[in-house]
Amino acid sequence: MTTREKGLWAAVIILTVSVAALGGLIMLRGLSKPGDIIKDDDDHTVAEIGQEGISEEQWVAELKKRYGANTLLQMLNRKAVQAETKRLGIQVTQGDLQQVLEQDSKGYASEQAYFEEMQQQFGLGPVDLRNEAKYRIGLEKIATQGIQIGEAEVDRYWKEHPEEFAAGKQIKLAVLYVAKAEEAEGMLARVKQGEQFDALIQEHSGQHLGNNTGGQLGWVDEYDPFQPEAIMKAARELTPGDVAGPIAVNDGYAVIFVDDIRLKAPPDKEEIRQQIRRSLALAQAAPLEEVEKSLRDKYGARILSEQDKPSASL
């Protein structure tokens, strides 16, 4: 996955989470039952703390403030892309979908392990991920419609960037996060004195720092885009049985332990050529955000509620 593709995937995940958040809200609004607590203004109380309640109206307002504009834009984008793929006769095949999912799940022990990680980190299940991959493929096919990449261009790119397609390696990694460098140094010293890293993980079970959670990560790609780069950079320099730290991450520090390292299977040559064609075509195409906007304009997309309009124009 190239840097540009990683950025797109991160954006897709963020928007998917926001769509899921508001989608869940819409479903919940229709699930009130007789006996639910009702405020004087007929607005449901959805949560309470002490003597204070949070009304559904307050909840809706907060969700719309945080996610409303992005969610509406994404919903409009989906409809516009669907209409354009139908007009152009573009098909997203099972082969297309499987190839993208295989690329996204590289660095994980299996496709199932990838699905489980996405569920844990972002609350996205297999159906969500397949739908987003399908949307991404359709959008890219629209953006690259008519762009032809010759075999000589593919050969030249492969020759100039061999490191992108090397077999690479996977690292069986464990990580512990702490707030202070002194704590990390203490853990590092204990492991170097012979204490098992698993024992430290058990000792700190349930503790976390911000969005980082420690523990056994299992097999991860050496360039895993979902792990802090500082951690993966340190891990790439270690051998099995090595420990390293303190590593500065976000608002704290990490200690890492490399349990094992294995080489990945060499990529299929035709798969590499297809990946290069896709990347080169995307590099020549308009930015995908511009393609989305042009499609919204083409199909007359409008946001009718003033409070839900994004700061930038549609």
Automatic annotation (TrEMBL):
Signal sequence coordinates: none
UniProt xrefs under Gene3D superfamilies: 3.10.50.40, Porin chaperone SurA, peptide-binding domain (1.10.4030.10)
Record domain PpiC: where: 168-260
Enzyme class: isomerase
Organism expressing this protein natively: Paenibacillus farraposensis
Entry EC number(s): 5.2.1.8
Name of the molecule in the record: peptidylprolyl isomerase
Family annotation (PANTHER family): FOLDASE PROTEIN PRSA, PEPTIDYLPROLYL ISOMERASE
SUPFAM superfamilies: FKBP-like, Triger factor/SurA peptide-binding domain-like
One Pfam family this sequence matches: Rotamase_2
Catalysed reactions, as listed in the record: [protein]-peptidylproline (omega=180) = [protein]-peptidylproline (omega=0)
GO MF annotation: an example: isomerase activity
